[in-house]
Amino acid sequence: MYRMREAVEFLIDVLGRCRVPPLVVGFSGGKDSTAAVHLVVEALGSLEPGRRPRDIYVVYTDTLLEHPSRARYHLLSPRRQP
Hints:
Blueprint: H1 2-17, E1 23-27, H2 31-46, E2 56-60, H3 68-76
Parallel strand pairs: 1-2
């Protein structure tokens, strides 16, 4: 848990200093990219609304290592969440 908090605090610091919209996060569906997206979401939730990037994109990338059913799920998922 300490490592996760340390990573979130690092992201909060970086996101707070960088004002480069949009924020783009790569995602393949594997455990590492899932953890990365989770950490970014945690960090963004800790920022004041005015300091959060306005546009945030999670971009799915097929590494050709996923099971075909997982790739199909990502392709059918909604592109934009409210």
